Amino acid sequence: MSSGTADAATGVGRGPTPEQGLARLVEAVLSLGPLLDVLPPVTVPARSRARVLGPLLEAVTRRLGCPAVAVGAGPGRPDPFTQVIADRLDLAGLPLTPDGRVEGADRLAGIVDDTAAADFGRFSARLDTKVGDGVPLRVHTAGRPGERAVVLALAPGMPARLAERWIRELARTHYVVTWESRGLFADPGEPAPGDYGVPAQAGDLLTAMDRAGVARAHVVGLCGGAVPAVTAAALHPDRITSLSLWHGDFDLGPDSPKTDHQRNLQALMAMACSDPGLAATIHETLCRSIGDNVPADLAHLVLYPYATAELFARYCALNSAVMGEDLRPRLAGLDQPVLVVTSTDDHTAHPGGSAAVAAALPGAVSLVRPHGDHISVFRGEPELFEAVAGFLAEHPL
Asked: Considering the entire predicted model, what is its pTM?
């Protein structure tokens, strides 16, 4: 869908049409699904246009069947999650007629349906299952079954939508499988997992493959997901034929290179795991400023595991296990083809960790980009897809 129209004589853009503006609102609501599902009812600020925009947003959420979002003045500064939602919806940007109506609203039902049909939720298929210990698991697939399979091991605790660009791109030529972390995406009332350890997370990877009917696959490990990816490959070399590890968060023993961010986050998560009451206090403190340091285009997804104190505690358990897992025993004997990718200016996961992993694997291919911060991996820049496509072409199943 075009982002706007252009003047035929000058080629100068004139901004989005009313239909395009409404479609972008629907896309925003759809993208907020994971966050809206776990937050209490949300009221976003739109002080001057609440009378017009409130009913419009109500109509959109009702037709989509997702949690309602109210529009109102709101007391004081919104909490970070409400602010992220308001920024995503960008309600003030919708075009209004001189008499205060929303342009194009008479065609809203069709716009909602057409936009939802192209959304990630329709592009991918969700397959629910349970792992051996009874923990529910949400598995997502895209592409044509029977094509070469690629499994995405996401950063633990992050919604599948965060890797949407990866999934859409890879699904053009591959059958793509991913899953959402144990304990963070269960339906209300589901018990908490008893095991958040890396072997359990690696087992979830194999469960996702089984649920999707995949016997063998290449595995893409993104950020913290690189650790269960390596573990699964070491334990099941017959199932995982090759690996690519992107900006991995690796622990390689006492002398492992780590950024200040890694050390501080690991210490904070260890404290949260030690005491549920302390986890709730840490969560409350973080929520006062957490939205200030998150890129606006991904904040609605990256902040998902911080939405409630319970989610945060489970997120800490998942990632504390990943960040504290000495990967050296898994690397020994790992003989599948491996691509290791990082950048010199990743200040989140130390590039030295990726360099050490590549050095420990004699057959590994190392790609070090001069620039590319940690979060940029999820934006799916073309050069990243070119790298993985080239590697997959060289190492067929």
From this structure: 0.92
